[in-house]
Amino acid sequence: MTRLNGSSMRLTIFVGENDTWHHRPLFTEIVHRAHAAGLAGASVFKGIEGFGASSLIHTARLLSLSEDLPVAIVIVDSEERIRAFLPQLDELVTEGLVLLDTVEVHRYVGRTEEGPG
Known about the structure:
This protein is an alpha+beta fold and 117 residues long. The protein contains 2 helices and 8 strands; from the N terminus they run βββαββββαβ.
């Protein structure tokens, strides 16, 4: 089990939900590559409204404008492992925003194979 404690790095990637890599969602490709790279974990969060470099507002409130909502992929691991993963993002993310910030991990507990409890 991967254990994180103290100073770590958070990698956040913002892309559109319709962005693809070889006919599959880009966020799925990023998560699978993070897993293959042995990173501690990755989560995908779907936004309900946002805009980026295009200045077009995407929102889930209006059916006609509900396409290509923002998606954030968040990965936390050691700085060394996160920085080693960045070249893969250079290949994958053609439009989007990639952020790095230092975080302090207070608690990181994985599930056991038997399940919770």
